[in-house]
């Protein structure tokens, strides 16, 4: 997963596990507050499980869906191929985070090697272990943290499973070279049952070269990321634990600003801004700022467009992110984001993934656990085999707040159902068809499009489920909202489903008597399009009391 948080208070551990479990995805991350609100995108490139696009500031945004590939073996790879270290650095390659260009004659080899780790291993093997990186910190970061000598010392814990030689060692070197040595107690490498020869004796010999203590712990069997991290944690001597992925590059000042957060409040988990190391070129790319991270109805971690409320919230987050998990904007760590997973899943991808998600739901979601299971059959099928008793006891002992509290206080802009919200189907009386959410993603990581009607589906199909909040926002999964133009225009006023923005153009009023759904600022009514084809999309029109403007809001039980 991702470059990890820091902690000092062992009680905060459940928080870390909660986060690392749901963040099965990723891009990261946000830092500098840009005044512009408009972050719409200009280009889209899509791969199977990933979207990436360039936003209007020229920043590349990558959204990985991390479904994991059930690869037990790498296609066409020989024993020698995966066990050989081809690290052969060329001075200045990848300098200052620049992309590496592979010569045409090497392209075939490049493609072969790519399969092993699902990133461009040939490129990585050409980049020196101590390449320079840009400093994207804001100016005031540079002068801060002068008193770092008073900060607590940390153990850096890096879990790896069949990691490439060059990426693993570049991670370690960048962490050490760009930190004051006095702040590093030790580096603990945890080997989660790797199968590569070079990660045995050659690695043990190599780690003697580091200017700080580097140790290796090995798990005999595959235990998974979190248990491996815990293995490192229980063996650590540092006052603070820092978890890092095995394919990262730390930039200057990364550690001091994380430790400053911990020093200030030992119960806070600190997290760096996570930049992108391109999996094809190994270019270091500044990650995006104006997005917020959350999980959707399927508990998948996603990045959403910032609306008005979040923009205000973000300003506040800089000083104090609510006390528990805090992004340290002066700490930037690059991470290689991949389009598919190179890891094997000994119990099968579905079992592993959905057991993890089901555990999150059972332990943390209270009334919303059933809501999750209702729409996620694979998780529903495994949930009864899981025993989370000890986790629930721990949650009680720590007196953690309820999920309802979390939704109200930490995430008020959420799109989950709640007691005081409508949840269910929105059916047009004349057509006897239901409003449906678009699934196609065109311009961003959120699907959006014209609002249309479809034949109504069953209660277990989330596509036509909507939440209507007290404030009048009609929301669906992935932070989508029913949206209509504020002012009269030329031609029909087309209704869309798009990223929730908090603006009044997304506010509606339902009149139980007339069954009208009235657009608040335009005073017009939600209407089927004038044309015969119902799939053409909805419009708003002057209210006329006709059946094409009548809607029934049908409650669907979600608890
Ligand atoms: Mn990773």
From TrEMBL:
Q: Where in the cell is it found?
A: Golgi apparatus membrane
Q: Where are the transmembrane segments?
A: 12-31
What this protein needs as a cofactor is: Mn(2+)
Q: Which domain of life is it from?
A: Eukaryota
* Keyword Glycosyltransferase part of the UniProt annotation: yes
Pathways per UniProt: Protein modification; protein glycosylation
Topology relative to the lipid bilayer, per the entry, is: Single-pass type II membrane protein
Broadest EC class assigned to this enzyme: transferase
Segments forming domain Ricin B lectin: 420-554
What EC numbers are recorded for this enzyme?
2.4.1.-
Q: Which UniProt keywords apply?
A: Disulfide bond, Glycosyltransferase, Golgi apparatus, Lectin, Manganese, Membrane, Transferase, Transmembrane, Transmembrane helix
What family is it from?
Belongs to the glycosyltransferase 2 family. GalNAc-T subfamily.
* Classification via PANTHER family: N-ACETYLGALACTOSAMINYLTRANSFERASE, POLYPEPTIDE N-ACETYLGALACTOSAMINYLTRANSFERASE 3
What name has this protein been given in UniProt? Answer: Polypeptide N-acetylgalactosaminyltransferase
The source organism is: Molorchus minor
Q: What is the lineage of its organism?
A: Eukaryota, Metazoa, Ecdysozoa, Arthropoda, Hexapoda
């Amino acid at each position: 997963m991702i470059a990890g948080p820091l902690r000092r208070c062992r009680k905060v551990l459940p928080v870390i596990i909660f986060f690392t479990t749901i963040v099965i995805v990723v891009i990261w991350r946000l830092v500098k507050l840009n005044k512009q609100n408009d972050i719409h995108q200009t280009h889209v490139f899509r791969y199977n499980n990933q979207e990436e696009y360039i936003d209007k500031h020229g920043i590349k945004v990558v959204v990985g869906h991390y479904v994991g590939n059930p690869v037990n073996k790498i296609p066409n790879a020989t024993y020698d191929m995966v066990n050989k270290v081809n690290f052969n650095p060329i001075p200045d390659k990848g300098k200052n985070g620049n992309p590496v260009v592979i010569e045409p004659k090497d392209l075939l080899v490049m493609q072969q090697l790519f399969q092993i780790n699902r990133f461009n291993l040939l490129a990585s093997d050409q980049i020196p272990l101590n390449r320079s990186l840009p400093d994207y910190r804001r100016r005031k970061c540079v002068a801060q943290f002068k008193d770092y000598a008073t900060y607590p010392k940390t153990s850096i814990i890096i879990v790896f499973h069949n990691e490439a030689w060059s990426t693993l060692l570049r991670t370690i070197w960048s962490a050490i070279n760009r930190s004051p040595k006095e702040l590093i107690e030790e580096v603990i490498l945890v080997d989660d049952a790797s199968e590569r020869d070079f990660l045995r004796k050659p690695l043990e010999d190599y780690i003697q070269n580091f200017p700080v203590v580097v140790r290796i712990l090995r798990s005999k069997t595959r235990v998974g990321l979190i248990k491996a991290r815990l293995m490192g944690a229980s063996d650590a001597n540092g006052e603070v634990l820092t978890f890092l992925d095995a394919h990262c590059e730390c930039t200057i000042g990364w550690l001091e600003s994380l430790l400053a957060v911990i020093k200030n409040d030992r119960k806070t988990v600190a997290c760096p801004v996570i930049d992108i190391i391109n999996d094809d070129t190994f270019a270091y790319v500044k990650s995006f700022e104006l997005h917020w991270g959350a999980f959707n109805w399927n508990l998948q971690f996603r990045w959403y467009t910032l609306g008005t409320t979040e923009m205000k919230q973000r300003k506040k987050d800089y000083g104090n992110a609510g006390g528990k998990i805090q992004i340290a904007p002066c700490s930037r760590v690059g991470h290689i984001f991949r389009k598919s997973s190179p890891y094997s899943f000994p119990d099968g991808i579905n079992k592993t993934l959905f057991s993890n998600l089901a555990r999150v739901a059972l332990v943390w979601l209270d009334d919303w656990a059933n809501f999750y299971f209702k729409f996620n059959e694979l998780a529903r099928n495994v949930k009864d085999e899981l025993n989370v008793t000890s986790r629930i006891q721990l949650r009680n002992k720590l007196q953690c707040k309820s999920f309802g509290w979390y939704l109200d206080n930490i995430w008020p802009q959420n799109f989950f159902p709640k007691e005081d919200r409508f949840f269910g189907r929105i059916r047009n009386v004349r057509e006897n068809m239901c409003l449906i959410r678009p699934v196609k993603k065109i311009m961003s990581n959120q699907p959006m499009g014209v609002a249309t009607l479809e034949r109504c589906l069953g209660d277990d199909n989330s596509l036509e489920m909507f939440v209507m909040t007290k404030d009048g926002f009609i929301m669906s999964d992935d932070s989508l909202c029913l949206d209509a133009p504020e002012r009269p225009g030329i031609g029909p006023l087309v209704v869309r489903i798009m990223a929730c923005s908090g603006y009044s153009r997304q506010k509606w009023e339902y009149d139980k008597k007339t069954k009208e759904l009235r657009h608040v600022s335009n005073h017009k009514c939600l209407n089927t399009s004038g044309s015969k084809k119902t799939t053409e999309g909805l419009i708003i029109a002057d209210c006329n009391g006709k059946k094409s403007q009548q809607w029934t809001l049908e409650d669907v039980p979600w608890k």
